[in-house]
Amino acid sequence: MSGFAPVIALVGRPNVGKSTLFNRITKSRDAIVADLPGLTRDRHYGQARLARRSFIVIDTGGFEPEASEGIAREMARQTQQAVAEADVVLFVVDARAGLSAQDHDIAAYLRRLGKPCVLVANKAEGMREGAQLAEFYELGLGEVVPVSAAHGQGVRSMLERALAPIVWPADDDADETPEPAAQDVIRLAVAGRPNVGKSTLINAWLGEERLVAFDLPGTTRDAIRVPFERQGRRFELIDTAGLRRKGRVFQAVEKFSVVKTLQAIESAHVVLLLLDATQGVTEQDAHIAGFILDSGRSVVLAVNKWDAVDDYQRELVRRSIEARLGFLRFAPLHTVSARRRQGIDALWPSIIRAHASAMVKMPTPTLTRLLHEAVAFQAPPKSGAFRPKLRYAHQGGQNPPVIVIHGNSLEHVGDAYRRYLEARFRKAFDLVGTPLRIELRTQDNPYR
Q1: What are phi and psi of 361, to 5 degrees?
Q2: Host domain of residue 410
Q3: Most exposed residue of 34, 118, 198, 272, measured as fewest CB within 10 angstroms of its CB?
Q4: What is the pTM of this model?
Q5: Which ranges carry the EngA-type G domain (predicted)?
Q6: pLDDT tens digit string along 306-342?
């Protein structure tokens, strides 16, 4: 198991193309594109890769370091938190609009911090050797790196420069988790938004006296790992928020660091996603759930504070889970009250089962037989003159399980048929709590 993924923060004034660059780096078009006015003050997080290395990217709103009130002040606080969490800052400026007073303010703020920073001139199509970039050197942040986020020009070179100071783990297969033996430790991350009851739940499992010693203020520390044993099984609990005594958390310091949650998810075998029954499923819950799915980690859902809502609110919570977390239908769902210790013991069988499903072994003869039975029951639909032919299957990986299917014209297999195959394999191997990935590989025609 390798260390945590490094963090890159995108910082700059409004409309310099930070979100476009974020989408280009993460190769996605997620919530950033769908932002509504008034929500741009939030930080947005994504996972990205450079070669075989993974890292986390933070997109921020327009930054006004000297803002003292209103939404601008809230956005500035969000950006400052992102910079504090980052290992490297990408300061994005607009190559076509040129320097502004706000650029100077941001540069002065970054110079005071002394954090590694790369000055990125976006919208620089055709300006690589142009004199238009010379004025940005007066910001005092070193060499200007021209890129075009819209066209992808210069982005890889920019990332290589930004990540060059990072000391990477020696293991090049950091994202491949080996199958543990029965006596090995299961890493369990408890994730969720602020104030959903993560600390209360872990205290109920371990006892508060044990965790008071781990109480440290601040949001930039690493996730706290606590060894735990239950019924002969060994676990390592990863607390993503840190446990603090009441009265010791200042308002200016956030209780919850999204970066720490993403890093804990990557280092875990199973993630317990804790929701708040009094607030339902929020956009941040869905974002964390999506990251869990993208990371391929097993997941168990738990709705805390179930004792604090009536039957009507409970029905609303169930509907919000179905609507916003429908992509996690394979995950076990529990209702608990960590404060009253109700339902928390029932979480452990689901956690163990989810881990076992992620590490399941699928023999090639069994997979091929199940594939042929699925095709015989319902053949893939034709696409024009082509009907895909699925010939055999084998396992391509674990945690999450990967099934590789070989055949002809498989590029014409649609998403609906993929879901059909996934359902058949899930039922056959009794997979619960883990994503299942299906890869289709078309055999080359030697006579083409």
Answers
A1: -100, 130
A2: 364-442
A3: 34
A4: 0.59
A5: 6-170, 186-359
A6: 999 999 999 999 999 999 999 999 999 999 998 888 9
